[in-house]
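Our consortium's second objective concerns turning raw sequence data into structural hypotheses that experimental partners can test. To show how far this objective has progressed, the report includes one record in full. It was chosen at random from the queue rather than selected for favorable results. The single chain below, 228 residues long, was entered without modification.
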Amino acid sequence: MAICKKKNTFFFLIAAPVMLVIAFGLVLVTAQKGLFDKYAARVPSFTEAVYDPEAKTGTYHGETVVVPSLRMDLAKAPVLGVSTGERWIEIDLSEQKIRAWEGGNLFLESLVSTGLPWWPTPQGEFRIWDKVRATKMEGGTGKYYYYLPNVPYVMFFENDKVPGWRGFSLHGTYWHNDFGRVHSHGCVNLPTPVAERLYYWSAPNLPSGKSSVMADAGNIGTRIVIHE
């Protein structure tokens, strides 16, 4: 009889709480299953710009946002001069900052907004593999759903662990101005003027008159380093 009482005491004091924690964890994961998405953003095309001149509003986390007008005239891209060192981009997640470098010289620095805790921006070394002047981005579910036409100055990046089809990118932002805090589904939200400067400064180089370009062996994308 004493042995049975000890077993019951063990169950109620140790085993039962552990089982409750496990059960609660399973319920929580199931309830939030719809929040987690392997895509940073779904886009209609990686090979060409997608611009809707009639788009006036978008949706971001339950709020209606105004879509600003966007010029698509790319006849003459800005001339930035000859670089004296390797151009590369640094994203500091702990500081929520971007720094663009030419060798050891700082080209620009700005606050950014990277991924929310449940949609983190990946860390590591990447290359820009595709640039588009504008595109539609859509993703998330429930209260975290977003539909954003004409996202400007988009620079998609990838590496051997994070494939390009997942839609991670640097891009301009019109749906919030709260840079320095996490906001995104994994992308790097930039103030639009900063995104514009990086778009023309970074590789792959955009051919004159074109609104998109994909990297290749003769036009390699700029290196991006993302770290805490």
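The partners drew two points from this record. The chain is about 20% helix and 30% strand. The radius of gyration is 22 Å. Both points have been shared with the crystallography group to help prioritize constructs.
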